[in-house]
Every structure is written in structure tokens, then in C-alpha cells.
Predict the structure.
Amino acid sequence: MKEIALKTAFVERVKKDPFLGEELLTSLDTASPTTVRLNPFKKTELFANEEKIPWCKNAIKLVERPQFTLDPLFHAGCYYPQESGSMILDSVLRSLPLPENPICLDLCAAPGGKSTLLLSFLEGRGLLVSNEVIHSRAQILKENVTKWGPNNTVVTNADPSEFDRLDGFFDCMVVDAPCSGEGMFRKLPDSRTEWSEDNVHLCAARQTRILHDVWPSLRAGGYLIYSTCTLNEMENETNVQNFCQETGAEIITVPDLPAKSDRKGLGYYCLPNHMNTEGFYFAVLKKPDGIVRNIKWKTKKDFKPIKWTEEIEEVIDLNGQSLYDWNGKLFVLPTEFEKEMLHVQAHLRTLKIGLELGEQMKKGLQFSHEWPLSCLNKKTFPRIELNLEQARSYLRLAPFTLEAEKGIYQVCYNQIPLGFIKHLGNRFNSGYPKEWRIRNL
């Protein structure tokens, strides 16, 4: 581990805090475990015998950290590296009395760890709106959500203040607010140099604004899970306490968690000296019961429903899915939630809605890269199994030899689709997105 000293002001504050103390400081200089969540929609034998993490379904601790960039199954969305403390969100979600098909929001979602966890929790039910305000990070979020596979998703690029357009819309929201990052000092020693008391105050004020901005879009009786990866009371307990006093929100106790109850009994901490995690704080708030909003549904006029064609019916299972045309591009939405998805798209800048199936061209439908990575049943597409060297070349957009008849194929590694190719006989064209290609092999 790179030796970077903790700031004196931080050390002195922790020493004076009986809730944290010297043990916390000592633990910040120990090595962090490597943990991942396996994708339940893309099952493989990868990491089959590793130690399971008890507070998150499909989560494991690895014996050593692999080079994820070199693993085609990582790029195929078979697993997601995530800090184990933040994975406790899975246990929290399972403890809440949510509707059978909840509408969920991940507000500050990039790069996608909590969104992919939410998608695994939903198991194809309900709807997830995954948002990121910074455009470059929102593109990374879109990529990771796409690779996970389900199409009951909308990815948006909006400021929290814009969510007041969706008044009373969500059953549950996760607000993992930008913070001073004290909980990351163990894993990312460089983050120690960026810490300051001024930044703590700045973050606390920003978090307060975000909570107030997004609160109207939570329905009466709905749940908000507030979290940070920092350790100070100002950004955590104080923010939660003040917000509850101002809004009438109720603090919800979550039973049977290994996390440590916070200083004021408002929320919980996962601490490196207690759970061998990074530092993570969360609290669960319930909005007071009240009038259920009568939502006036809205749809973009140029996003039009169309009938399934014979060409599409040959390759996709139509069960429970609707087809839409948007300027020549075709999108597949879960029929049960198409109204809600279109409503979000009509009010917020949308980067992804459902599954982008492809684009209508003069020579027929050109399938998108989202299609082979999706969890929808693909009927007749032929497959080509790649070896490790070929798979890495495909992900780099590098040339390699591939014998096949002319046609469109799913290329796979360990039976998991990586994407499309169009084989022309003496060569092939790759369907892998240029912006996703691996550059450091």
C-alpha cells in the first residue's frame, strides 16, 4: 500500500470521537479485501468456491485481486467489483415492505455498483431509473447497466432538482450522495490528500440540497435510503436528523444487520475495524403517509409504438415486451412498465430506455450492441465460441483469425455473449462499441 499520511485534523477528530477511536485509524492502514457481486442473469462457474458475503446475495470475497480488465467475463457483465460495505444495500432492500413491482430510483448512480445491485434485487420485476448528473460519468453508468442485461431500466442524465417533474413517482429511492470520502482512505490512499474540513462542510450542504430536491418525487409512504462513504457526523447523522425534522420523515430500523448503529440511533455504519469493509454509512427514511399523487402521464410524440415484424419475431421472444420506433431506432420495453418508462423519458434527459434493439436500414435491421448483452431470450442467432486470446482481441477491436460462413453471429466466451460480428467470408466487422474498447492490454 502506498504510504500517505492521514491529515492531522482528521486524526485528531477521530481520536476524540468515542464512536470511532484509535481502532478505526489503525484499520485504515490495512489492506482492503477484494469483493465482487455475481450477475444472477449471467451465471458461470467463475469464483465458484470463494467465501460468500452474508449480507448480500451473490456476493463473494476473492482470495486475491485479479486483473479485471483482462477478463472477458468482466466485460460481458458476469460480475461487478464492489466494496462489500455498500453491498449491505441488498439486505436493506429485502427488509422493506415494497410493492411487488416497485419503481426505484438510484439518484447518484455512476459508475453503476448500486444500480446493478438494484437490478439483481428486482429480478426482472418493477422498474429502475438510474441517474447521474455528470455526463461523462453517466455514459459509464449506461455501459455498466447495459452489460448487466435486464431491460426494465431507464438511464438518465439530470440534476436532482429536475426530479420534481416526477412528483410522487417512486416507491423507493437510493441517494448515495457525493461526500468527503473518509471511508475510502483505506482502499484509495490518494484520497487522503484531497480531504479537508472545508470540503466536509461543502459536502454536507450539497447533500442537504440533494435530499430536498429529490424528496417530492418519492410517493407518500415510500422509502429513501440515504448513504455516504464517509465517517463524520455532519454529513451523516446531523444531515439525517435535520432532514427528518424539516420534512417529517420517519427513521426506519433495519433488524438483523451486522452494521453498527450510529451515534444517535438514526442509521448504521459499516466500518473497516468492525466488518473488514471500507467506511459506509446509511439510514432508511420513510415519507409520511398522505395523498397519493394523480400522475398525468406524458409521452414523447416522436417515440412511437410499432408492430413486431417477421424479421424481429425470428430472433426475439416477444413475451411481455413492446416495440417502439424513435427516429428509425427500435427499442424493446417491458409492456407492464412502458407507460412509466415513457413518462420518465418525456421529463428527463434519457441516455438509455429499455433495450435498444437496433436500427432500421435499407438492407434490413442492423442490431445494436445492447442486444447480445441483454437478458432477453434470443431465438435463432448462431454463436461462435472464442478462446481467451480471441476474446481479448475482440474487446480491443484488434484483428484476429475467425473461420466462419458469411452472416451475423454472437461471439461468446465461456458461453456468455460478448457482442456481435458480421462475417464477410474473408474478414469480419466487429459490432463492439469503439468507446468501450480495452486500451491497456
